[in-house]
């Protein structure tokens, strides 16, 4: 469903996000208690922090090497 919506709306979607969503959806069919939301929370935090930390590190490296390339 996520990939179909991506095709219809043109929004980029990570296959990792689609897989995690599918696993959670499958778990929910057996009941909310069957889903380990602690693991999902860690995954969601990683989805947010990874690009943020990468961008910050890239910015710091650019500042540190700026005088070398000018």
How do the helices and strands follow one another from N- to C-terminus?
HHH
Helix content: over 70%
Distance between the termini: 48 Å
Query: Globular, elongated, flat, extended or rod-shaped: what is the shape?
Result: elongated
Structural class: mainly alpha
Instruction: Report the count of strand segments.
Output: 0
Structure description:
The chain is mainly alpha-helical and 70 residues long. 80% of the residues lie in helices and 0% in strands. The radius of gyration is 18 Å and the shape is elongated.
Write the layout of secondary structure elements.
Elements: H1 2-9, H2 15-29, H3 37-69
In short:
By secondary structure, the chain is an all-alpha fold. The chain has helices spanning 2-9, 15-29, 37-69. The model has no long low-confidence stretch (mean pLDDT 86).
Task: Give structural attributes.
elongated; 3 helices; mainly alpha; 70 residues
